[in-house]
């Protein structure tokens, strides 16, 4: 089974991201989701089959479900008539969206002590500069915490403290970003928990549309979120992730300095990563991903 590494269309290419190609389509944007996967800001040589479909369909699922919480940029996931000759590639992989002025902020919300937050806590006893007392790995915070970062075009995103965020977007917008990000996280956490899934942390991106805030990019996908099975959740231990963290954990076991070129991914890692993406899609939507 082969994954799709690139999607080339006879449209103006606006941006080529780590995973998505963004094209101009009429007065809108067309976002095409490939099966590329990145870790530590390096795109792997091998794609993960069906990954792009999972990302695109899950984002569309939550954009539609949460549209009353905040406006989002999704217009349709249907392949337009003008591009029907590419339907076999584009089906399930595209969104036609409203253009916005993206804010250069990653709005990260953490409900549990994991990932970089756990790594910092082990070193300093603090979580992004805050003292929560004695904690264990995977422990749930009393309240979700907002830990934004820069959105770097190249290189690594950098954490933003409150002053840094205010300097970047202004006080009123900083407060709005924190409020809506935590609101979205709580909503997603409650929704997923009823489906046997814990969302430990996630990130959102926003843009401006005629001065108003609008949710863009992706939402509650295995690329943007840390998912655990509720049945396996136990504070004080590492939990098998149902997201991209599985790949990161594999790469951390290698003697690799996190710079290009990436190490080749063995077949069993590719398949195990794919299985996790398909599983989280099924748990959330109740549907199996059919094969194109």
From TrEMBL:
<comment type="similarity">
    <text>Belongs to the SAICAR synthetase family.</text>
</comment>
<comment type="pathway">
    <text>Purine metabolism; IMP biosynthesis via de novo pathway; 5-amino-1-(5-phospho-D-ribosyl)imidazole-4-carboxamide from 5-amino-1-(5-phospho-D-ribosyl)imidazole-4-carboxylate: step 1/2.</text>
</comment>
<keyword id="KW-0547">Nucleotide-binding</keyword>
<dbReference type="InterPro" id="IPR028923">
    <property type="entry name" value="SAICAR_synt/ADE2_N"/>
</dbReference>
<dbReference type="GO" id="GO:0006189">
    <property type="term" value="P:'de novo' IMP biosynthetic process"/>
</dbReference>
<dbReference type="GO" id="GO:0005524">
    <property type="term" value="F:ATP binding"/>
</dbReference>
<dbReference type="GO" id="GO:0004639">
    <property type="term" value="F:phosphoribosylaminoimidazolesuccinocarboxamide synthase activity"/>
</dbReference>
<dbReference type="InterPro" id="IPR018236">
    <property type="entry name" value="SAICAR_synthetase_CS"/>
</dbReference>
<dbReference type="GO" id="GO:0005737">
    <property type="term" value="C:cytoplasm"/>
</dbReference>
<dbReference type="Pfam" id="PF01259">
    <property type="entry name" value="SAICAR_synt"/>
</dbReference>
<keyword id="KW-0436">Ligase</keyword>
<dbReference type="InterPro" id="IPR001636">
    <property type="entry name" value="SAICAR_synth"/>
</dbReference>
<protein>
    <recommendedName>
        <fullName>Phosphoribosylaminoimidazole-succinocarboxamide synthase</fullName>
        <ecNumber>6.3.2.6</ecNumber>
    </recommendedName>
</protein>
<keyword id="KW-0067">ATP-binding</keyword>
<feature type="domain" description="SAICAR synthetase/ADE2 N-terminal">
    <location>
        <begin position="14"/>
        <end position="258"/>
    </location>
</feature>
<keyword id="KW-0658">Purine biosynthesis</keyword>
């Amino acid at each position: 089974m082969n994954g799709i590494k690139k999607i080339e269309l006879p449209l103006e290419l606006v941006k080529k991201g780590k995973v998505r190609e963004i094209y101009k389509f009429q007065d809108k944007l067309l976002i095409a989701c490939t099966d590329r996967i990145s870790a530590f800001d390096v795109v792997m040589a091998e794609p993960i089959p069906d990954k792009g479909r999972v990302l695109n369909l899950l984002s569309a699922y939550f954009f539609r479900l949460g549209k009353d919480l905040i406006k989002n940029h999704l217009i349709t996931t249907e392949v337009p008539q003008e591009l029907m000759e590419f339907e076999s590639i584009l089906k399930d992989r595209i969104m036609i969206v409203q253009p916005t002025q993206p804010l250069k902020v990653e709005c990260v919300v953490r409900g549990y002590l994991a990932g970089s937050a756990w790594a910092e806590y082990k070193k300093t006893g603090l979580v992004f500069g805050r003292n929560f007392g004695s904690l264990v790995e995977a422990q749930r915070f009393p309240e979700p915490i907002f830990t934004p970062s820069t959105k770097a075009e190249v290189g690594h995103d950098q954490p933003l403290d409150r002053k840094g965020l205010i300097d970047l977007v202004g006080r009123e917008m900083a407060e709005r970003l924190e409020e809506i990000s935590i609101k979205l996280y709580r909503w997603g956490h409650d929704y997923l928990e009823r489906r046997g899934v814990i969302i430990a942390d996630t990130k959102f991106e926003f843009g401006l549309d005629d001065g108003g805030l609008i949710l863009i990019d992706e939402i509650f996908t295995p690329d943007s979120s840390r998912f655990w099975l509720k049945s396996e959740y136990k504070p004080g231990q590492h939990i098998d992730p149902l997201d991209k963290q599985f790949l990161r954990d594999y790469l951390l076991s290698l003697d690799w300095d996190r710079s290009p070129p990436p190490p080749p991914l063995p077949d069993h890692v590719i398949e195990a990563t794919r299985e996790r993406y398909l599983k989280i899609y099924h748990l959330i939507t109740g549907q199996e991903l059919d094969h194109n």
